[in-house]
Design a protein that fits this description.
The complex is a heterodimer of chains A (523) and B (311).
Chain A: H1 2-19, H2 21-48, H3 53-77, H4 97-107, H5 112-127, H6 132-164, H7 167-194, H8 198-209, H9 216-225, H10 229-259, H11 284-298, H12 300-323, H13 332-343, H14 347-351, H15 356-360, H16 365-395, H17 401-423, H18 446-462, H19 464-476, H20 479-522
Helix pairs in contact in A: 1-2, 1-4, 2-5, 3-5, 3-6, 3-8, 3-9, 5-6, 6-9, 6-10, 7-12, 9-10, 11-12, 11-16, 12-13, 13-16, 13-17, 16-17, 16-20, 17-18, 17-19, 17-20, 19-20
Chain B: H1 30-37, H2 43-53, E1 65-74, E2 77-87, E3 92-96, H3 103-110, E4 118-123, E5 126-127, H4 132-138, E6 139-142, H5 154-164, H6 169-182, H7 198-210, E7 216-220, H8 228-243, E8 247-252, H9 255-261, E9 264-269, E10 272-278, H10 279-283, H11 288-296
Parallel strand pairs in B: 3-8, 3-9, 6-7, 7-8
Antiparallel strand pairs in B: 1-2, 1-4, 4-5, 9-10
The chains are: A mainly alpha (523), B alpha/beta (311).
Chain lengths: 523, 311
């Protein structure tokens, strides 16, 4: 049975490769990336063999803990990182639990992440080659550690299968777990700069971690090498116990997942709340805008874009705080607005086949384009204004406010115009509704990459006047250029937005069935 | 490839028939004049030819839907092979065929969702691919196997469908209320469609297709996973719609249902129409199911799976 499960995994992998050559490209790129990471890791681990035991221990425990943590967190973040052997699919087969567990665990090694983790962990054997006993322990512990990784991620996956039959949990967890991720960069940079004496702090952290399930297994060989067999034995027990507890958790949640149907009914609600449909006029444009607005707040794929746009300026701000200049905050509004308006260039792709409703009802292209742009603009423009005001207040740079507002408005309006054309032209393989916002789907090829790049360049050209005027305003410090920039941003932006909607509308009218066909094909 | 931009000028006479469920919404006499005026539209006379071939070219006897030489291939494989079909106005038309017969592809092409490789479609005399907007006004479509905007509540979704059709808010509100009541969805009106069961999803999609009171309803597998009570309610709605002059085209796997419900039927297999006409003509004495199997083939005469018998 275990062999059957392993073969199933391989067959699924092979068939997915056969389906699209881009899958193969993805696998090769992933494999090369993995090999590069592996090479660096092993080289580093071998180099550590020459270092002091204390240093080697600190590095290995910290890195190892991060690896286990990664295996725990990533499956939740990208629901369905590897759901090829989704436990829910075994519901109807009476596979004995023990064999199912063993098969699923071993199948975790078949895949780039599993294989790389195993090989890199075995690299620790090389670190301890000067200490024969530690070397032996390292081999055992490496396997133990990788098993822990796989069992931990499986336990989390099947536990979340239980939870995620509730859609609301899935939506919320996807968005919430995403926040720390984008804040990771400033946190790390804050930590690393905050403590110049981090070299003193890290061994302490590693020491603490080495007594937890995350670090214990990595610290056993080091303790042996350092001549503390008692500690080593204790930590080995911690590691074994962790694995046992995780396996037990996995077993009970898997047992539950196997008898819980995937669908559970939510709370029934009677009607009467039309939400955003009451805020916009009852026209075609208004309807499209209302629908899009609801999606910005209710669909995790949009919500994540919205949060990113709102938070990214802060991400830039934290490092700036340490360098003492908050000049970057001046441009926070422009950056946030750019991210938001460009994200609707994939709007129709995000609709997926629900776009059928638009094609079937014969909504005019101009109305479709205008409605989507309106919803995005209603969110983007106030956000941009707020950030500009904050930036000006923090830097007391009120002199530059008109210029920056001009740049922001120019970006918003021109960007919406450009997005309106692009989304009527291209469809991407965007995450499907209900999927994790981070799930990348196969088939995103270089043409799409080119379109994105072309979009950036195109937008840069469209707002070039505002960019130049802003630069001049900052360079000369004369307010008049700022006011000119504001006027140009508003006027030129409005013209470009109108042009984008008309042009995009025409494209849409001509190509709506083709867009739908592309969406159906990519489904 | 760039045709069918909804040409507004040539059939301006058609634009004032938006949401009338009455079949007399388009005066029959006006149409030939219109197609005469559409000087730059080469297919319109062809349409007239096909239409006048129908017995009694009076307005209400014009077929609701005419397919001529409709063809579509995917990756070199022919999915629909030059189909001709006439759906009389006021008929309850069933489209039956095995899986992969080309039913959905044909209906998608007939409703302006999928551009045909060749061939033409007319809805009440309007060429679907040359005057998309006018043609789509006349049609209500329930596609199969596509997503809905499922982060909207049921009520919001149907409202959205109405507003997209350019209807005014008051009418939409009224009709949404009526539709939700008729389809037993009042208690779930505020629930997000993503949390609906398969049957409820089907019903809310049907409501979205009905909101603008189309003259022709095209329903792809409308009864799939719908419970028997709701199915009976839906059948009643459709029957009364047909008796008031509307036209319904349904595709289905369930022969029994089609035989009971429809007055016309077409059997499609392998991208071809094998038989078409009134239900009695097509089944010619046998039950529709037997006739279907006879036409399509594929039944096994062997004993099969001897080990599966429990005795």
């Amino acid at each position: 049975m275990v062999a059957v499960l392993l073969r199933l995994k391989l067959t699924l992998l092979r068939n997915s490769l056969r389906r699209s050559p881009w899958q193969l490209v993805g696998l090769i790129i992933g494999g090369l990336y993995g090999l590069a990471v592996l090479a660096v890791a092993i080289a580093g681990l071998l180099a550590l063999s020459g270092a002091e035991v204390e240093l080697a221990k600190t590095v290995i425990v910290l890195a190892g803990s991060a690896v286990i943590l990664g295996w725990l967190v990533i499956p939740v973040l990208a629901s369905g990182v590897d759901m090829t052997l989704d436990p829910a699919r075994f519901t109807t087969f009476a596979v004995p639990m023990k064999q199912l567990l063993a098969g699923l665990a071993l199948s975790g090694f078949l895949g780039i992440p599993g294989a790389i983790t195993l090989l890199a962990s075995l690299g620790t054997v090389g670190t301890w080659w000067r200490h024969p006993l530690a070397m032996l322990a390292a081999a055992v512990c490496a396997v133990l550690a990788v098993l822990t990784c796989i069992v931990a991620s499986r336990a989390i996956t099947s536990a979340s299968t239980n939870l995620s039959s509730s859609r609301r949990f899935k939506d919320v967890s996807g968005v919430l777990l995403f926040l720390p991720l984008i804040l990771l960069a400033p946190i790390i940079s804050g930590l690393s700069r905050g403590g110049e004496n981090s070299a003193d702090v890290l061994p302490g952290i590693a020491q603490t971690l080495s007594w937890t399930p995350l670090g214990a297994v990595w610290s056993v060989p080091a303790d042996l090498a350092a001549g503390a067999p008692g500690q080593a034995a204790l930590k080995f027990l911690i590691a074994l116990a962790s694995l046992a507890v995780l396996a037990w958790l996995w077993k009970i949640s898997l047992a539950k997942a196997l008898v819980t149907p995937v669908h559970t009914a939510g709370v029934r609600r009677t009607g009467g709340k039309l939400g955003a449909f009451n805020l916009f006029p009852g026209t075609e444009v208004g309807a499209v805008a209302a629908r899009a607005t609801i999606y910005w707040f209710r669909d995790p794929r949009y919500t994540v874009s919205l949060i990113t746009a709102a938070v990214i300026p802060l991400v830039f701000t934290v490092p700036a705080l340490q360098s003492g200049s908050l000049g970057i905050l001046n441009f926070a509004g422009a950056i946030a607005v750019f991210l938001l308006v460009w994200s609707i260039s994939a709007d129709i792709s995000y609709d997926n086949t629900a776009f059928t409703l638009h094609v079937a009802s014969g909504v005019r292209g101009r109305a479709d384009r205008a409605g989507r742009a309106l919803a995005c603009g209603v969110l983007a423009v106030p956000l941009g204004i707020i950030y500009n005001l904050v930036g000006a207040a923090v830097n007391s740079a009120w002199v530059y406010l008109p210029a920056l507002l001009g740049l922001t408005f120019g970006l918003a309006l021109s960007g919406l115009g450009l997005s309106s054309v692009v989304s009527a032209w291209f469809t991407y393989n965007a995450p499907a509704p209900g999927d994790s916002p981070f799930k990348s789907r196969p088939g995103n090829n270089f043409a799409v990459l080119g379109a994105q790049l072309g979009g950036y360049v195109g937008l840069g050209v469209l707002v070039l006047p505002e960019i130049i005027l802003t630069a001049v305003a900052f360079g000369t410090g004369r307010p008049v250029f700022g006011w000119i920039c504001l006027a140009v941003g508003l006027v030129l932006g409005t013209v470009l937005l109108a042009a984008g909607i008309v042009l995009g509308g025409r494209l849409y009218d001509r190509r709506a069935p083709e867009l739908l066909a592309a969406l159906v094909k990519a489904r | 490839m760039s045709r069918g931009n909804g040409g507004t000028a040539s059939v301006a006479g058609m634009t004032d028939v938006p949401y009338s469920s009455s079949p007399s919404g388009v005066p029959g006499a006006a149409r030939p004049a219109d197609s005469g005026a559409a000087e730059s539209s080469p297919a319109a006379p062809g349409g007239a030819e096909n239409l006048s071939a129908a017995p009694g070219a009076a307005a209400d006897n014009r077929p609701a839907l005419v397919l001529r030489g409709l063809t579509k291939g995917f990756n070199g494989k022919v999915a629909v092979n030059s189909i001709d079909l006439d759906v009389p106005s006021g008929s309850f038309y069933g489209l039956v065929g095995p899986n992969g017969a080309g039913k959905t592809t044909s209906l998608s092409m007939a409703t302006g969702l999928l551009r045909p490789d060749a061939g033409s479609v007319w809805v009440h005399g309007i060429n679907v691919w040359e005057h998309q907007l006018q043609a789509k006004r006349l049609m209500g479509i329930l596609p199969d196997g596509v997503r809905l905007f499922d982060r909207l509540s049921g009520e919001q979704l149907v409202t959205y469908a109405g507003l997209l059709r350019g209807m005014d808010r008051e009418t939409v509100k009224e009709r949404v209320r009526d539709l939700l009541a008729a389809l037993d969805l009042v208690k779930d009106a505020g629930t997000l469609v993503v949390d609906y069961s398969a049957g409820m999803t089907k019903k809310i999609a049907l409501a979205s297709a009905l909101i603008h009171a189309p003259r022709v309803l095209v329903l792809d597998e409308p009864f799939e996973s719908v419970d028997p009570v709701s199915a009976a309610n839906i059948r009643d709605i459709l029957q009364s719609y047909v008796s008031s002059g509307g036209t319904v085209i349904v595709s289905s796997h369930v022969m029994d249902l089609v035989q009971r419900m429809c007055d016309h039927v077409a059997v499609i297999a392998g991208g071809n129409v094998l038989a078409a006409g009134t239900v009695d003509e097509v089944r010619s004495g046998a039950s529709l199911e037997d006739r279907f199997v006879q036409l399509v083939g594929g039944r096994h005469e062997t004993e099969g799976l001897a080990w599966l018998r429990s005795s």
